[in-house]
Specification:
Chain lengths: 125, 125
Amino acid sequence: FAANFVGVATEFATWYYKTIDGTDRSGLSVVYRPHSMMTFETNQVQGVGAIKEKLISLPFQKLNHQISTLDAHPSGESGSIIVLITGQLLIDDNEHPQKYSQCFHLVPEGGTYYVLNDIFRLIYG
Amino acid sequence: FAANFVGVATEFATWYYKTIDGTDRSGLSVVYRPHSMMTFETNQVQGVGAIKEKLISLPFQKLNHQISTLDAHPSGESGSIIVLITGQLLIDDNEHPQKYSQCFHLVPEGGTYYVLNDIFRLIYG
């Protein structure tokens, strides 16, 4: 049941991490909507402006995400997709990447998808 | 925006892990429906029967899940909830727990919730 959904999710995640790892994180704001919600560690924000502000203000100069696993399911009749990613994140000039987990809920809109839910957690220890 | 949703998700996850860590994992089947999907590591199954069979056939005698983080978002107008859990899992007589990440999509039904999507991944390394 997952073939197309994994393809869409992989394409989305590839773009998302390329953008957040790049020089202008504000480019991510195009995939959020006024009712979108983001949790980054213990911080929760809602709406394009608040999410964009949070992404820009993350206290990291350099990020490098590497996906370890990506799974995607259709989430009902609407064509929405639930994505669970686990991966490794290299922050600034650290030598050792940190593990993380991120869940996206992608909702179809006009031939593309927007992000309704985005939950990010570092895996400690 | 997350207060009630976190409460529901915490109650669900507490019951879910207590049941899967207990002596009869088949008790979990009550929260799945014919269209429910489960990914456990690289295995994907759909439907109550297939999910129940997968859960029962997991090659572990003893499990002990401990939640490290739990985040929950409302996932649209329907009252559905997206949950991202990170935690530690002690398997059989191993001394060291393994880290894991699990995403649930809970859908309201008759005063309670069922699981539409369940994605589980161990975090290696």
